[in-house]
Structures are given as C-alpha cells and as structure tokens.
Design a protein that fits this description.
This protein is α+β, with helices and mostly antiparallel strands. It is about 20% helix and about 25% strand. A 7-stranded mixed beta sheet has the order 1-2-3-4-7-5-6, with no helix packed on it. A hairpin with a 4-residue loop joins strand 2 and strand 3. The protein is globular, with a radius of gyration of 13 Å.
Length: about 100
C-alpha cells in the first residue's frame, strides 16, 4: 500500500507517493485522477520533492517527457490528457533531471 503524502501549495497535484522498489512516482490530481511514472530512481524522486520545486513544472518538463503511456495495461503513444482512468508513463526520462537542473538553475 502506498503512503500518500499530501501536497500543499501546488495547483497541479494534491498528493504524491514513491515506491522505491518499483522506482515509481505516483501523483494524484485535484480531480482524483492518479498517475504513476516508472523508471524513476530515488534521485529523481528527491528532485521532484525538493523544497521549492514546482511539482507542475517538474511534471511538465521532466516526467511528461516520455509520451509512451500504459493505459489500463495496453501501451499507446499519446499525450497526457488527465482522463478518468489509470495512466502511467513507462519512463520518467531519467537522463533529463540534470538537463532540467541546468535549464532552471
């Protein structure tokens, strides 16, 4: 069972969780839609949850980078739409965090 952490001050998400064994970041949006982003090692989770880090910006610029999405178990290529079904990105773009840090300084 996930240990959801409430997120205050974010307009994009209301809760977040991390499964270190699966290397997945989970997010819950205000409309109760939940997504997971896979292949996210602990350093990506730490960057995502760093003090002052905008969750929405990080999702848009790093986690949403991969457009390969597993929708109810069937892989498809499609952009994030926030539909009322379970979604997950197969890769969080693990090579992007350092580029993200450099771009956002």
């Amino acid at each position: 069972m996930l240990d959801w952490i409430p997120v205050s001050g974010s307009e994009r998400i209301v809760a977040e969780a991390y499964d270190a064994e699966e290397e997945r970041i989970y997010v819950r949006f205000p409309n109760d839609v939940e997504w997971w982003y896979g292949a996210c090692p602990p350093d990506v989770w730490e960057e995502f949850t760093a003090p002052g880090q905008s969750r929405g910006t990080y999702i848009a610029q790093v986690l949403n980078y991969s457009q390969t999405v597993a929708t109810l178990g069937s892989p498809q290529v499609r952009p994030y739409r926030g539909e009322q079904i379970t979604h997950s990105y197969e890769s969080c773009g693990s090579s992007l965090p350092s580029a993200f840090r450099a771009a956002t300084g």
